[in-house]
Amino acid sequence: ALLRAVNVLLQQRRYHAALAVLKGFRNGAVYGAKIRAPHALVMTFLFKSGSLREKLKSIAQATYTHSRNLAYFVFTYKGLMALQSRLQGKKIPFHSFFAACIGGWLVFGENNPINSQIIMYLLSRVLFGLSRLAVEKGYVPQPKQDPFPLVAALIWGTVLWLFEYHRQTLQPSLQSSMTYLYDDSNVWHDVSDFLIYNKRTGSE
């Protein structure tokens, strides 16, 4: 009977906006955990030192933070979208920008490793999206050739230049990845740390 009553409630159109906010919270929490858990697992066991307990705690903390923040953001965004639409009687493009700005400020405004990674992930996609939009709207002429090879060349050229000469400007996890790829590959003592291991036990 309880399940039937809940299902009836979920079908009520007048509660749709509020229920969509709640489901958005749920989806944000689940998606955040799905995205962060495997990433944290791999990065922690590849690059972090410490006991197994410390590593598992770090993975759990990163997963919780990402899941919580994404859930809070989706809840805030969808709640503000519903509120604005109700107040103005319709949905307009500015509503999305304003609601997301408020959510970004409140939820992702703290400068920590998790938020930093999320913002950098979004930044690259925003730049690509704005570039495509500029072409679609005619603000930038349609390229005669695919610009992606040039973009790839400039991005890799710039990031390796920063790594070699201004390493401190790069995000810590990127520094770790590049140290493994470009610095650690310059050092070995015998076949064990040339092919099998990255570093010998106890080696610098």
UniProtKB/TrEMBL annotation:
Residue runs in coiled coils: none
Gene Ontology annotations for the cellular component aspect, listed alphabetically: peroxisomal membrane
Pfam families documented for this protein: Tim17 (PF02466)
Protein name listed in UniProt: PXMP4 protein
Lineage: Eukaryota, Metazoa, Chordata, Craniata, Vertebrata
Gene: Pxmp4
